[in-house]
Amino acid sequence: MKVHIVHYGETSPIDQGYRPQRYGLLSRALVAAGHEVVRFLPSFSHGERAIRDVTPNEVYRTKDEGSVVHLPTRGYTRSRGLGRMRFLGDFRRQVAATVGDGGRFGQPDILLIGYPPAGAIARIGSSARVARVPLVVDIRDVWPDAQVNPLPRGIRGLARAATLPVRVRNRVALECADALLATSSTYLNWGVMQLRSSPRCGLHVSYIGCAPAESMGDCLPGNETEAVFLGSLSSHFDFDLLIRGWAKFLDHVEPERRGDFRLNIVGDGPLRSRVERLSREVQGVNVAGYLPQAEAQLVASRASIGIAPYRENAQMSLPNKLFEYASMGLPVVSTLPGEAAEFIEVHGLGVTVRPDDDDLTTALVELLCRSGPAARLRRSSLVSASGALSSDSIYRDTVTFLESVVAEYPG
């Protein structure tokens, strides 16, 4: 079958130092199963905040991921604001003009698009209905609920009222779906709740998965005295909690050994200046900032645990960080409750704590001051990353689901 995949925010095979993410891994699985794939993504790179050096709308053929087409868009520097709105408008118009219309790139047997953005889904949904092609929507974020629900009760109602037009637009877009994918059961249930009835061609949970190169990579035992945070320095995370917890952890360490312990914070974002300011007052905290992928992995390979200090009431379900840490054999210390906590326990990926100084401190003492628990969790993380949570396994199942959608679509 011929598959068109539309997404933004991920890397492209033409990017320097490319490592496949969700749609690259899915494309590989589709090609390996004998299917033809064309991926459509913006000419603007979200990660590098730069326009890619490509010819817009030109077909770039890859060795094992099918073809890639970069749709011309303007860029932006901030994730919120006029520049981002212009980018989304460009992307929506280019998707409507290019994808699934049976023109230059041919008519697919199935269309898959990531959510958000809703506007592009609505546009591509119209093309899919005319062409009588099944549309699969892949839910990767519960926008705007993820932003509204954590707000204080006093302003949450106002925020819900203000985002009502967005919710209406989301529901109109998701009604176009003939099938839903999602990165977690929580996200899938959210998607179903937006609809008047369940999609006619089915539902499927497709975890983000652990990339093969990572799960087979730096698996040597980490430094038992180092912990790491890898990710964006954004409001998704409670860095005050992280640094307070680290300071209290050091209080439990013998004075002569405190200099042996280190917390490396790798990443960049709007909270970087605050994180740097907080870290100056605490021993052993190193804010490395943004590092290229290879350097970031080297820092991670020296650690024995990875920390995921999500803020209280964070709306993430099964974020990428759980899979990223597992793929490197890093036991995770996570503050996410619900599905994430159950997932971590079932797959032996680490421990879940409340977003509380004392709980975090207790976990750090257990995993950094005693070698047994961290080593055991490291082994179980690597087993899960190379088995049930491997991208090969997850995306083979996703390909089977997409094949069933095409077979069941009434046309």
Helix and strand arrangement:
Layout: E1 2-6, H1 22-32, E2 36-42, E3 44-45, E4 50-51, E5 59-61, E6 67-71, H2 82-98, E7 110-115, H3 118-131, E8 135-139, H4 145-148, H5 153-162, H6 164-174, E9 179-182, H7 185-193, E10 203-205, H8 212-215, E11 226-230, H9 239-251, E12 262-266, H10 272-279, E13 285-289, H11 293-301, E14 305-308, H12 320-327, E15 332-334, H13 339-346, E16 350-352, H14 357-368, H15 371-386, H16 391-408
Parallel strand pairs: 1-2, 1-7, 2-6, 7-8, 8-9, 9-10, 11-12, 11-14, 12-13, 14-15, 15-16
Antiparallel strand pairs: 3-4, 5-6
Helix pairs in contact: 1-16, 2-3, 3-6, 9-14, 12-15
Structural write-up:
With 411 residues, the protein is α/β, with parallel strands linked by helices. The chain folds into two domains: 2-209 and 390-408, Glycogen Phosphorylase B (Rossmann fold), CATH 3.40.50.2000; 213-386, Rossmann fold, CATH 3.40.50.2000. It is 42% helix and 16% strand. The chain has 16 helices and 16 strands. The strands form three sheets. Strands 5-6-2-1-7-8-9-10 form an eight-stranded mixed sheet, sandwiched between helices. Helix 3 links the parallel strand 7 (110-115) and strand 8. Helix 1 packs across helix 16 (391-408), helix 2 (82-98) packs parallel to helix 3 (118-131) and helix 9 (239-251) packs across helix 14 (357-368). It starts with a strand and ends with a helix. The model is unreliable at 213-221 (pLDDT under 50).
Count of separate DSSP helical elements: 16
Report the mean per-residue pLDDT as an integer: 91
The CATH superfamily of the largest domain is Glycogen Phosphorylase B
Name of the top-level CATH class of the largest domain:
Alpha Beta
Q: What is the end-to-end distance? A: 15 Å
Rg over C-alpha atoms, rounded to the nearest angstrom: 22 Å
- Strand content is 15-25%
Task: Indicate the low-confidence ranges by residue numbers.
Answer: 213-221
CATH architectural name of the largest domain: 3-Layer(aba) Sandwich
State the domain count: 2
- Report the principal-axis shape: globular
Within the largest sheet, what's the order of strands? Answer: 5-6-2-1-7-8-9-10
Secondary-structure-based class equals: alpha/beta
Number of strands: 16
- Describe the sheet with the most strands: 8 strands, mixed
Helix content: 40-55%
